[in-house]
Each structure stands twice: as C-alpha cells, then as structure tokens.
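Example record

One chain of 323 residues, shown exactly as stored in the release files.
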Amino acid sequence: MAEESKAFSEVRGAVRSALEHLQPGSKIGIAVSGGADSMALAAATKMESAEGAHQLTALIVDHRLQAGSGQIALNAKSALQGLGIDQVIILEVDVEITDGVESSARRARYGALEKCAKENSLDFILLGHTKNDQSEGVLLGLARGSGTRSLSGMSGHKGIFLRPLLHIERATTMQCCSDLGITYWQDPHNEDDRFTRVRVRKLLVEMEREIGPGIVEALARSADLLRDDADALDAIAKEFFDTIDPGDIDVASLARLPRAVRSRVLRMAIYAAGAPAGSLSADHIAPIEALVSDWHGQGPSSLPGGVKVERKSGRLSLFQRGQ
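Predicted structure tokens for this chain:
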C-alpha cells in the first residue's frame, strides 16, 4: 500500500477512535456502497484491524433500483477483496416505495443490515456517513420545521451502528481513495435533482460560495450541540414516563411539564400504544398536545398504527382501535 497520506491518516485516525472502545476480536460489519466514503472507511478499518484485532465482514446492499446494480455490487466486492477483506456479503433487497425512493431505500437498507447482523452474529456495523451528510441532514430538518431530535442529526453510535467519519469531510474520503489508488463508484443518483438530498447538497455548495466557507462545519457543530439538548430532554421525559400508566395519563400532571418534555412523553405513550416506530410527525403530536394545553371538548384523534387518543374526565386514554 502507498505511503500513508494526510487524507488516509485523517480517516484512519477517526476509525481508530471508534474501534478503540470495542473488545478485541469483535465481529464488525462494514456497510459498503462502493462510493468513496465507504471504500475509504473499509480501507482504514482493514488497516486498524491488522493482525486479527477484529473480524471484518463487508456488507454490500444492492437496492436493485438502478440498471446494472448487480455488477456495481460485484465490482465493490472485488475492490474490497483487493484491500484484503475476504469476507464480503452482498445483500439484495426489495425496496417497497411507500414514502419516496430515498426514505424507502433507507428503510430497506437498514432492515437488511440489521437482519444480516443477527444472522452472522455481528457486534457492530460501521457506516460511512461524513460531516457533509450530517450537515445536509440538519439543513433538511430546518426546511421541514423539524424538532430538536431531528436537527441533532446522526449519532456516532446508536445501537449496533457506528459512524466513525461524522467529523471527516467528503472531500477527504475522495482524496483518501485517490491516494490509495482505490477506484470508487460515483452514484448517478447523487446528481439527480429529483432527490431532495441532492438539491440540498447543491444548495450547501451555493451557501459556501455566497456566505463564505465553514457552513458545513457550522451545521455539523450545531447538530452536536442539539444532540446534547435532545438527549437531556429525552432523559427527563423518560424519567416521568416510567412513573405513569402510558394508556391512562393524568392531564394535570402532563400540564405541569414543560412543553418540550411533554411532547416527548406523548410520543413515548403513543409508540407504547402501538404506533409504528418513526411514524409520528409534529402534525400528529399537535392535536394530542392540544388535548392538554388547549382543551375545548375536542373528540378523539386517530394516529398511525390504529392508535386513538381521547380525553376523558381529565385523563388521556390511549388505545388501538378494536381494543
């Protein structure tokens, strides 16, 4: 391998920081698309796992949404084996388009990765999201009027998923691949303006040009700060939630909570009643909040998963239709 470059050293250092907390011999999956971010991640992880420090398996998800996607997956597999990662699994998925291609593909991808992790007893899966991905997500959240949790972006560690490159810029991973002689796939979808994230990506470039450099860094830093706030509010809400019956909640006790905490308690209660994970938006929560803070005899509200919420005799009743 070529003499270590500045870009590769930066990527490798980020991976080292993520892996140093893991037990020796951990079984690690590396999610690889074939693009620069994931290929740089794979190369650095292989170097940091030399001499069998960890057991590596590369995971390539073929969404089968583009012509020739199978060959792209095979090319990525060959490139990974060229890096010395012998265990490579190609996961073919069927993407059910329900709420846009991007969201549907993301849901299918994570589902396939989690299923593969269980089947192969993987301890963690590394993802190649960069600082640019983080800042794009924050800007998307702002455009949608999302709350603190959404604006806090992606976490470096959530469940089995680790994101070592969240403080590395995309340009660094591209330079890393160039320095190592790694040929990476450039997804044509990344230039397709039909996709919201592509338009946001181009907007960030325009903002950097018009406002000045540092926008990507500032948005990513904001995500870190907001995540601390969101974690603290979630913890306070969880402490209250653990003291109540989530299907039958005293309205007066909810009314005493700060709204930021109360909205989290309401989300927890609705999910506990059977709403699908991740299905609730601010528009879903608003009428439930009004049952507490703007009560004037409203009827029950229907929510995802068949959940209904109504106010009776100073209490919120949450249940699924048919119960």
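Notes: The beta strands are 27-32, 55-62, 88-92, 124-126, 157-158, 161-162, 248-250, 301-303, 307-312, 315-320.
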